[in-house]
Amino acid sequence: MSVLVLPTCPTDCAGSLPIVAFDECAPEVHYGEVAKLYVAKADAADFTNVELLAEWTARLSETDTGADKIRELTIIGDLPIPEQTEQTISGDRTVVGFKQFVLNVRIDETNDTNYNFLLQYECNVKIKAWFETADGVLYGGNEGIEGTLRLNNMIPEARTDVASFQGTLKWKNQFSPLRCASPMA
């Protein structure tokens, strides 16, 4: 499974009719929950091939501060349907704006190291990110997703509930993020 190339959009109103695939006996489905968030500096190098485990192994690190290193966060998250504006213009035509994506993030391991990570992202910096679902689908393609990560410390009311860092990864794009099978899965 790999969708690592954006479509070429038509230049006329007719467009094309893309192919589809449905299987009566063995449908392919994917399950929910974003389970991993991979975070790098916004100017970190792109992947040559995001599907190669060797590239990930060379870049994943919890402590190395090299320019192209990537942090792996264990999260619980979801990606709702993005917001998108439509505007009617002259001639009863419609233009569509970029999609506004919001990946909801919850980190339940709230140690001091991770709290310092939260504090760093209160500095209003951009990041490059990839995210992975619990069933092993990796989103972000070779270039990753450039966006902003906002995290907040949430302390629940009940003594038996777990505190967490909650927030969002936000970005805008015309297209949904590219995806492939995660080499880490």
What does this structure look like?
The chain is mainly β and about 180 residues long. The chain has one domain (about 30-180): Factor Xa Inhibitor. Helices cover about 10% and strands about 40% of the residues. The chain is built from 2 helices and 10 strands, in the order E-E-H-E-E-E-H-E-E-E-E-E. It has helices at about 55-60, 110-120, and strands at about 1-5, 35-40, 70-80, 85-90, 95-105, 125-135, 135-140, 145-155, 165-175, 180. It has a 6-stranded antiparallel beta barrel with strand order 2-3-5-9-8-6.
Indicate the CATH class.
Answer: Few Secondary Structures
* Inertia-based shape: globular
Enumerate the strands of the largest sheet in spatial order, edge to edge or round the barrel: 2-3-5-9-8-6
| CATH architecture annotation | Irregular
Main sheet overview: 6 strands, antiparallel, barrel
Mean pLDDT: 95
Task: Please tell me the total number of domains.
Answer: 1
List its traits.
Factor Xa Inhibitor, 10 strands, mainly beta, six-stranded antiparallel barrel, 185 residues, globular
In a few lines, what is going on in this structure?
With about 180 residues, this protein is mostly beta strands. It is about 10% helix and about 40% strand. The chain has helices at about 55-60, 110-120; strands at about 1-5, 35-40, 70-80, 85-90, 95-105, 125-135, 135-140, 145-155, 165-175, 180.
